[in-house]
Amino acid sequence: MRRLGIIIAGLALAAGLWWFRAPLGEAAYIALAQQRAGRNALAPNSDGRSDGLTLIFCGTGTPLPDPERAESCLLVQAGTSLLLIDGGDGGVRKLAGWGVPLGGLDGVLITHLHSDHVEGLGPALLMRWTGSAARTPLPLIGPAGTARLAAGYNEMLHADAGYRTAHHGEAITPTGGGQFAGRDVGPGVVWNAGGLMVTAFAVDHAPIAPAFGYRLTYKGRTAVISGDTAASPAVAAAAKGADLLVHEALQPRLVAGITRGLAAAGQARTAQITRDILNYHTTPEQAADIAAQAKVGMLVLTHIAPPLPSRLLHAAFLGDAGARFAGPIRIAHDGLVLHLPAGSAAVEADAL
Ligand SMILES: [Zn+2]
Ligand SMILES: [Zn+2]
User: Which of 133, 194, 271, 290 has its CA 20 to 30 A from that of 96?
Assistant: First the structure.
């Protein structure tokens, strides 16, 4: 009898919850949204991070479809400086979802003009504009062709920029802030402000030329970004003694499976593309060799090809990279945060 009473009370409670699901859902949503909207994952010491060089991986994938990874995207924070390096599809929007505000974005650097590094830059422009009421265009800096890319973005978003100002007003989205200011640069120092210095160096991504890697230094800490490149002595030279080498990586033995599948399905042209990509990327083992030559503190692999749907595949992806480089090797994932505190040799890892 008592048990029947409990069952009836349980059913009544379930029915009540079901009956009131709309107001309950609304209350839960509002409580959660109030807590999450407007949070700032970059706020000083919000997460206990000290001053230093911080890399936030917002896109660690490639054009190969990967539900886990956006295309190339890396946000760099150093003191009050905030730079985006590349903005492929989906990367910048991930930052918004993680509560990383871009109102303070100082500029965008791009490694090269392949679409998977530049086709998602629109949201960076919008987030910086709406986040800061910027009146000046956002610097977009990179190899030859970057100014043309900026002009193209400005043309594409010309109508949108006008709509935003007309709708929200000059105080929120002022005229002039919804545009890029493009600048073509050569190898050498391309950014030097607030203690953050960025030096571009040419890498080997032929026939895409020029293509850059970047060396970042801030308060004695150094990270080197390879960009897209075949295994290149230029990366080893630029990474000499760096705390961190962020290198692209493609594992041909795994890509071969995709090639065979496409060929068997009669998709000869797409199969050929998966063969062509092998000659202008770097294997994890080659990246490990470069890390060893350069004597870096840590190797982080990104631009991961092919997609790795499970961590169980990491060993197959790395091959014998671990035997070639004695230091730590990480496979980056979207949301990875690496912090290099000033005055220390440590690399602290976190995730958004
Ligand atoms: Zn790429
Ligand atoms: Zn590329």
Answer: 194
Whether 89 sits among the annotated catalytic residues: the reply is: no
Residue 3 parent element (H or E): helix 2-19
Out of 86, 89, 116, 228, the active site residue is 116
Q: Residue 343: what pLDDT? A: 93
Q: How would you class 300 by CB atoms within 10 Å of its CB: exposed for 0-12, middle for 13-18, buried for 19 or more?
A: buried
CA atoms within 13 A of residue 63's CA, in its CB half-sphere? 11
Tell me the pairing of strands 138-142 and 180-184: parallel
Asked if 235 and 244 touch (Cβ cutoff 8 Å), the reply is no
20 — phi, psi (to 5°)? -100, 25
42 contacts 82 by C-beta, under 8 angstroms: yes
Segment 91-120, tens digit of pLDDT: 999 999 999 999 999 999 999 999 999 999
Instruction: Find the 100 Cα to ligand 2 centroid distance in Å.
Output: 26
Q: What's the pLDDT score for residue 22?
A: 93
Neighbours of 289 (CB within 10 A): 17
Question: Is pLDDT above 70 for 1?
Answer: no
pTM of the model: 0.93
Distance 137 CA to ligand 1 centre (A): 26
Query: 179 near 161, Cβ under 8 Å?
Result: yes
Q: Quick one: DSSP state of residue 210?
A: S
Bridge partners for 82 per DSSP: 77
Question: Which of the 8 DSSP states describes residue 259?
Answer: H
Residue 50 confidence (pLDDT) above 90: no
Quote the ligand 1 centre to 327 CA distance (angstroms).
Answer: 25
**Residue 63, preceding bond cis, omega within 30 degrees?**
no
Q: Are residues 171 and 165 in contact, defined by beta-carbon separation less than 8 angstroms? A: no
State how far the Cα of 101 lies from the Cα of 244, in Å rounded to an integer: 25
